[in-house]
């Protein structure tokens, strides 16, 4: 690499010397009416062609090498970014600045790394070319050398300044460009296509996108105008300097102080040097700009995995304990999604004994899902304590905890991959175990429809890719429940598992769930209170607090909020049955 750069660097100055000799020898032949040795002209011509070919060969090899390097770096950069985003605390995803940073860290970084790696070598190449060309020029006339130095200085300074400006602009414009992209995704997305048509949102969204796009484009355009005006200024000054110099050199020629070959070589050198200076200037500005932007990538990769509040106890990591005696204990839990943000959970205390079936009920926004996410250790910046068999959750590493807990979230993931992968992701190391897979799908009530799909468990689900089969909302939910069963964990959490299920499937789910979860601790969030009557413990939540807890019978006797909610739902059924 270094060798090829050095050879590449020397080619222009050798070309100049050859040009001079070639032109002078042609001139000599003309002046002697063809009486001189012609072969020398062919010799120089061949040398010049050879140099040109060598130049192209090196350029081609460098381009291929760069493409290869870029692929490898692209892979490495993306691997590191997704390696980070997939393990980093969920709390980061609540923060829009995190997304801005993620976008800056991801976009075009592999290209930058390649440029940063190539940059110093390319710079060395340009500097050698520049120095040798100036050296050759000075041997023709000192003034030519001085002009070239002047030609170089200005663009270098201006381009470094432009690099800095571009970085500041990109940083400032990232939130805006993300918003522009967001509207585009809404307008192009499959998930939003139905509603956009239903509510006739096209014009409104296009208008919003247009406004943001225009304001973004305006910012970018004003930057381009400014930078191109600077560049135009530099080019103008360079052109004037070159013309003055050429005029001077012509004048020297008339005084017989320069040969025609030297004149040609100097003219060629000016053109050449403009290119070299521009390359040096661009290298400096891109090295500077890239170093600033790569800082974003480095900072991103250095994010700590958890956002730890100062009062969080530091301690050694502990393995997940066997759930035999104390179970799960929550003591005076308080939680906000954002620092100094609204308190979402407050004064939450309860205990779940091993093997108990727990139901969490309450109105929308009461904090049920948030409580479950805290129990899962997905958010750890809470106050108070959560312990598993007296072991503080904050001391149990996330991966260790997840090995023992299975969950179906309200907004469960729909992987547009095969049915096997959708279920097998519950415990990916058992992905190929057909017996386990079928057993889990039977428990989740998905086996009957999966076995009728075109390629059964190997059918691609969803419509994003060719050959995929779309499922109904309830079928997707059954797949998610099967995934949870496939995990075969000690603790199972279901967040509104029956939301998309038909009444038969719902009744079936509760029955199967009760049978299959014997000996396991289960926590189920539900708005359908008839599904909670057999729970060992019902937690009733309101505005982030637990306002009642006990069994169905105890809560009915209490005649409080739970009893009211239950009676209203029961009345609804009776009313419907009578009418
Ligand atoms: N990621 C989040 N960032 C900030 N606030 C959130 C986030 N998720 C939920 N909240 C807020 O926390 C509160 C409780 O939400 P949560 O989803 O826990 O309620 P829920 O009882 O499960 O409601 P539902 O019955 O509607 O599912 C709500 O006010 C909601 O706005």
Can you walk me through this structure?
By secondary structure, this protein is an alpha/beta fold. The protein folds into three domains: 2-162 and 237-301, ABC transporter transmembrane region fold; 324-404 and 492-579, P-loop containing nucleotide triphosphate hydrolases (Rossmann fold, 3-Layer(aba) Sandwich); 413-488, P-loop containing nucleotide triphosphate hydrolases (Rossmann fold, 3-Layer(aba) Sandwich), CATH 3.40.50. It has 17 helices and ten strands. The protein has helices at 2-31, 39-85, 96-106, 109-140, 142-188, 190-198, 202-254, 260-301, 368-375, 398-402, 419-424, 434-443, 447-450, 473-487, 503-516, 552-558, 561-578, and strands at residues 328-335, 345-352, 357-362, 383-388, 391-392, 405-408, 491-495, 521-525, 537-542, 545-550. The strands form two sheets. Strands 6-7-8-3-9-10 form a six-stranded mixed beta sheet, with helices on both faces. It has a four-stranded antiparallel beta sheet with strand order 2-1-4-5, covered by helices on one side. A hairpin with a 2-residue loop joins strand 4 (383-388) and strand 5. Helix 1 (2-31) runs antiparallel to helix 2 (39-85). The radius of gyration is 36 Å and the shape is elongated. It starts with a helix and ends with a helix. 30% of the residues are buried. Adenosine-5'-triphosphate is lined by residues 94, 337, 344, 362, 364-370, 410. One of its GO terms (molecular function) is ATP binding. This is ABC transporter ATP-binding protein/permease. It is a multi-pass membrane protein. Residues 1-289 form the ABC transmembrane type-1 domain. The chain crosses the membrane at residues 140-162, 229-253, 265-288.
């Amino acid at each position: 690499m270094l060798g090829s750069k050095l050879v590449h660097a020397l080619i222009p100055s050798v070309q100049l010397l050859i040009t001079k000799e070639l032109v002078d020898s042609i001139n000599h032949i003309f002046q002697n009416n063809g009486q001189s040795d012609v072969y020398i002209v062919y010799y120089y011509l061949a040398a010049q062609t050879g140099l040109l070919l060598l130049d192209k060969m090196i350029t081609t090899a460098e381009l291929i090498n760069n493409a290869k390097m870029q692929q490898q770096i692209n892979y490495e950069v993306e691997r590191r970014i997704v390696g980070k985003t997939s393990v980093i605390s969920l709390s980061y995803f609540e923060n829009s600045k995190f997304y801005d940073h993620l976008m800056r860290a991801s976009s075009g970084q592999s290209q930058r790394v390649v440029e940063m790696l190539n940059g110093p070598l390319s710079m060395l190449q340009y500097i050698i070319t520049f120095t040798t060309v100036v050296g050759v020029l000075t041997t023709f006339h000192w003034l030519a050398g001085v002009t070239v130095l002047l030609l170089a200085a200005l663009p270098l300074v201006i381009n470094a300044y432009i690099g800095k400006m571009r970085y500041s602009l990109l940083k400032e414009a990232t939130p805006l460009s993300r918003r522009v992209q967001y509207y585009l995704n809404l307008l192009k997305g499959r998930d939003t296509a139905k509603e956009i048509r239903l509510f006739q949102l096209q014009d409104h969204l296009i208008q919003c996108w247009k406004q943001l796009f225009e304001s973004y484009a305006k910012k970018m355009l004003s930057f381009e105008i400014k930078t191109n005006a600077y560049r135009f200024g530099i080019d103008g000054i360079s052109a004037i300097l070159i013309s003055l110099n050429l005029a001077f050199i012509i004048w020297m020629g008339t005084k017989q102080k320069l040969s025609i070959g030297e004149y040609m070589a100097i003219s060629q050198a000016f053109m050449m040097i403009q290119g070299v200076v521009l390359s040096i200037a661009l290298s400096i500005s891109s090295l500077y700009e890239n170093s600033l932007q790569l800082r974003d990538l480095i900072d991103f990769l250095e994010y700590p995995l958890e956002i730890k509040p100062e009062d969080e106890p530091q301690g050694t990591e502990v393995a997940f304990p066997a759930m035999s005696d104390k179970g799960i204990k929550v003591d005076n839990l308080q939680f906000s999604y954002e620092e100094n943000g609204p308190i979402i959970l407050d004064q939450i205390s309860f205990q779940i004994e091993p093997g108990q079936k727990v139901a969490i009920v309450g109105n929308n926004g009461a904090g049920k899902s948030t409580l479950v996410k805290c129990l899962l250790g997905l958010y750890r910046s809470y106050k108070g304590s959560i312990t598993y068999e007296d072991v503080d959750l904050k001391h149990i590493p996330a991966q260790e905890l997840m090995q023992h807990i299975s969950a179906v979230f309200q907004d469960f993931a729909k992987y547009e991959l095969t049915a096997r992968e959708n279920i097998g992701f519950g415990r990916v190391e058992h992905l190929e175990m057909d017996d386990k897979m079928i057993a889990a799908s039977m428990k989740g009530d998905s086996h009957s429809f999966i076995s009728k799909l075109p390629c059964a468990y190997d059918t691609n689900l969803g419509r994003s890719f060719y050959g995929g089969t779309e499922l109904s909302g309830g079928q997707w939910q059954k797949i998610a429940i099967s995934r949870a069963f496939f995990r075969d964990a000690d603790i199972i959490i279901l967040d509104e598992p029956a939301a998309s299920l038909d009444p038969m499937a719902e009744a079936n789910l509760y029955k199967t769930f009760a049978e299959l979860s014997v000996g396991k601790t289960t926590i189920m969030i539900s708005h359908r209170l008839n599904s909670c009557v057999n729970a060992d413990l019902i937690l009733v939540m309101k505005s982030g607090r637990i306002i009642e807890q006990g069994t169905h019978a105890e809560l009915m006797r209490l005649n409080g909020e739970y009893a009211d909610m239950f009676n209203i739902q029961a009345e609804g059924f009776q009313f419907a049955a009578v009418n």
